[in-house]
Amino acid sequence: MEKGFYRYNMVVGGILAGVMTVFMLVGLFYTPYDPETMDPFLKFAHASLAHPFGCDQFGRDIFSRVLQGSGTTFLVAVGTLAIGAGTGTFLGLATGYFGGWPDEAIMRFNDLIVAFPSILLALISISLLGPGKYNVILALGIVFIPSFARIVRSEVIVHKDMDYVKSARLMGVGHMRILFVHILPNIKGTLFSALAIGFNNAVLSEAGMSYLGIGVQPPDASIGRMMSEGQAYIFTAPWSILFPGVVMILMVLGFGLLSDGCGDRDA
Amino acid sequence: MKYLIKKIGTLIITLLIISLLSFLAFQVIPGDAALSKLGTGATGEKREELRREMGLDRPVLERYGSWLLDFIRGDMGESYTYSIPVSEMIKEKLPVTLAIAVMAFICMLAVSIPLGLLAGKYSGRLPDKILMVLDQLVMSVPGFFMGILITCLFGLVLHWFTPGGYVSYQEGWGPFLGYLIFPALSIALPKCAMGIKLLRSSVIGELGQDYVRTAYSRGNSQRQVLFGHVLKNSLLPVVTFWALAVADIVASSVILEQVFTIPGLGTLLVQSISNRDHPVVQAVIVLVAGLVVVINFFVDVLYGIIDPRVEVH
Predict the structure, then answer these.
(1) Which has fewest Cβ within 10 Å: A59, A67, B126, B242?
(2) Which residue of B has its CA nearest to A229?
(3) Chain B contacts of A127, Cβ < 8 Å?
């Protein structure tokens, strides 16, 4: 029963995440209308075939803006993971495998950072670096390093004493090869699950920061920013806030289910 | 006792490192306080003079020391934008954010304990399935969107409160708390979802234990077993999650204050970041981070009391 439930999660999550990824990738390169063109005749236009999500307070096509915003979100999330998961995985592998005082030092520092709310850390970084797409990537990326380091480290510690690693070592395989060719493929389940969760956290953090007006800046479209602008018109034009919201929920839901499925948890 | 002393030691070191890092972070940005105060048009000579006056020519560690001492005494410097003491700005806003955080925490406990037990008890059956689907859905809603949806439902459709009609606690605690229920709920719901999921799997694990069978064999009713035995044991792993959620609750409050236009610490922080008002940003961040660390400390100590096995490790 339980197993079936998680397989179901994986399939639904996989399909949803796949569709949303295509949506985001398309948003990077193509939008049906120019997201910035204002048309006073289309102010608060209802949803129609020509404008599936309707138009906003300036008569801009919401579907195009959501599409472009998703593209930006994708870019930020992938950039964040590249920095956070990349560095974190490397640190986790090295500290978990070699141990010793660098391990101790980095993990104590990690404890310190984990106690800190991540959005607060990102806000500090933004107040130092200034807002904008690339600074958001940098800030979130740095903030995400500790959690990845911690997850990978605890997996490596389990695996490094397993027989397959011991026998590889006996055969004279180098440390680097053991880490990247032997251990890394064996912890990929956990890693994928962490990546999917990390993707969601990046999407949510970026949306939160942009909603506050200190994340992605115009002219880059951002779903978070669209929603903070749309909030004033929630009664006159609820679609200007509902559609971006639903797209964002579907994005996060897909990757959340996928991560549940990858995690292979048994309860 | 040894456990407590060790924990207090860690607490003090953590607080010191947090304050040092936040202090240093604002030293590396280009341009200093004198420049921000005078603007870029100021002459070099005038800048030097102000730098001496503000004590910016002293070594970094010395300045950190005096800043920390001042901070502990309640002197957090002066806002660049408003030229009033930072401590005054904070004193006014702190109770608001604290009230939201405490209410959100209570909401979280009140919702997730019964629902987690329910889902665990009926695992694999209809109530559990419905809860798990809802759970996954709620977990995917960004905090601020949850706030907007709640404004929409309770404010615009049901008219239970006036969106934007925040009442300060100086004008009356009743309406103040009444307004804050809604942001607190928006913060708590996503955390509830995670808590229900954790408690559910913990309850399922405990229900399979030998002591549950023993309890039944001694003639306890299902209710007695569930509340008297299982709940206590299955709460332990969830308590850790709740402790970590405190940090998230405080952080979510920063965003939800914007959604509900509440003048709390979060609003102050966001405004000060936009205004590049560094003394305020620095003070708010050190204060919030310190608060989170202190709360975590108390939870750790409490955890040692609830589950004496923790001290062994």
Answers:
(1) B126
(2) B259
(3) 272-273, 276, 278, 281
**C-alpha span between A83 and A229 (Å, rounded):** 30
Residue whose C-alpha is closest to residue A21's, from A145, A190, A203, A239? A203
The pLDDT tens digits of the residues spanning A210-222 come to 888 877 877 777 8
Model confidence pLDDT, tens digit, residues B160-197: 777 777 777 777 777 777 788 888 988 888 888 888 88
Nearest to A203 by CA among A12, A20, A47: A20
Cα–Cα distances in angstroms (integers) from residue A108 to residues B10, B40, B186, B203, B215, in the given order = 10, 41, 33, 32, 42
Mean pLDDT of B203-212: 83
Interchain CB distance below 8 Å, B142 and A204 = yes
pLDDT at residue A266 above 50?
no
| Least CB–CB distance from B250: residue in A114, A117, A235 | A117
B82-132, pLDDT tens digit by residue? Answer: 778 888 888 888 888 888 888 999 988 888 888 888 888 887 788 888 888
Determine contact: A139 vs chain B, CB below 8 A: no
- Tally A–B CB contacts below 8 A: 121
Domains and CATH numbers, chain B: 89-277 (1.10.3720.10)
pTM: 0.79
Out of A2, A214, A231, the one facing B274 most closely (by C-beta) is A214
Q: What are the distances in angstroms from CA A158 to CA A161, A243, B139, B205?
A: 6, 45, 30, 23
Class of A71-225 in CATH: mainly alpha
Alpha-carbon gap, residue B270 to B285, rounded angstroms = 11
CA–centroid distance for B295 within its chain: 9
B122 CA: distance to closest CA in chain A (Å):
13
Q: B140 contacts in A (CB within 8 Å)?
A: 200, 249-250, 252-253, 256
Q: A178 vs chain B: nearest CA distance in angstroms?
A: 31
